[in-house]
Amino acid sequence: MAEQVSAKRVVGLAVPALGVLAAEPLYVLVDTAVVGHLGALPLAGLALGGVLFTQVASQLTFLSYGTTARAARLFGAGRRADAVQEGVQATWLALLAGVLAVLVGQALAWPAARVLGGDEVAAQAVAWLRIAVLGAPFVLVTMAGNGWMRGVEDTVRPLRYVLLGNGVSAILCPVLVYWAGWGLEGSAVANVVAQVISAGLFFRALKVEGVPLKPQPTLMRAQLGLGRDLVLRGLAFQACFISAASVAARTSVAAVGAHQIVLQLWTFLALVLDSLAIAAQAIVGQALGAGRPEEAKRFAWQITGYGLVFGVVLGVVFAALAGVIPGLFTSDAAVLGEVPHAWWFFVALQPVAGVVFALDGVLLGAGDARFLRTATLLSAALGFLPLIWLSSAFGWGLLGIWSGLSAFMVLRLVTILLRTRSGRWAQVGAVW
């Protein structure tokens, strides 16, 4: 039997990855706190605009997760230059997709916001979104850069790059929103500044590697093949979260503001837990690339235990802080009154999320994207979406929305545990 992967190696990969993963949602939490003190309406506009903007990254997760899986296998097989070349091609795809996202975002900002919310909230969302979407190419380049660097177990430089960009922007945001008097639009400008700084550093990292920087259509097509399944998986996530935002927006301004606060905390903790998944992707991909499937299988259960413990700890901490944290984001009494309707679902789901996200990393590292696609689509169709739209029909509000998220997560937990137990995902080789 293969030896257990050392905890030191897991922590060495997970902690810097945690910094990268947490930096963006932590900045969004700062952004939410800054805008939240402008009032309930700007906060609702940020919530709706933010949901629309996140479609850019959410639909193209293969630029990071797929690139990590492919690069890790090549790195495990002793082919570092080929692993970095995966990053070059992912960066080209990021630029192409980012330019398209800017064009589509400008054209569809108003109609999309109007469908999801009333005129008043939609107007605020569009004012923010038309500026924020200009950063789309840089967001995607950063995702691609994180992907190949994780694959070669270089997680420290991405942390520096992302912290520098978001650190500058976190200082700039309140200056532009309050001192310059730009309001919600100042928040969007600060976002774009962060994205430009980080992407520039990832460009530089590729250049100093000394590999050819020309596009290679064959490799790009292979990445898109894996990307297809991850895009469909991402569409399932976003269909759920867009529907949830729409139902919250049509419930009341206070409900959508409360949903924004709890959802951003959920996103933040999901990415905290996902740091284990990043370590799992790199370790599993390298083990399979080097022809060691038993090591990969053993590590899958090892990371499951880590995820469960991590999730329990987070649940306990946020249960204890239930009376403190929401007030950091808004002083609006109506918004604060709605928060408890989502808060306790958010707390109870942390242990489930710890296991699900850890094993997501195992299967992504193995390139098992087809299974993850199917499991996510079924969980969304049978769990999340029915409860969200019943909530809309019967006026259940945030209770119905977060019941849907709970059903979604439990279904994902069951399917991913069964798949991990089967062992069919552990296929060896530098490529697949």
TrEMBL record:
InterPro entries: DinF-like (IPR044644), MATE_fam (IPR002528), MdtK-like (IPR048279). It is a multi-pass membrane protein. The keyword Transmembrane helix applies. The chain crosses the membrane at residues 46-69, 90-113, 125-149, 161-182, 188-206, 230-249, 261-284, 305-329, 341-359, 371-390, 396-418. It is found in: Cell membrane. The keyword Ubl conjugation does not apply. GO terms for cellular component: plasma membrane. Keywords: Cell membrane, Membrane, Transmembrane, Transmembrane helix, Transport. GO terms for molecular function: antiporter activity; xenobiotic transmembrane transporter activity. Its main location: membrane. Belongs to the multi antimicrobial extrusion (MATE) (TC 2.A.66.1) family. This is Putative MATE family efflux protein. It comes from Saccharothrix variisporea.
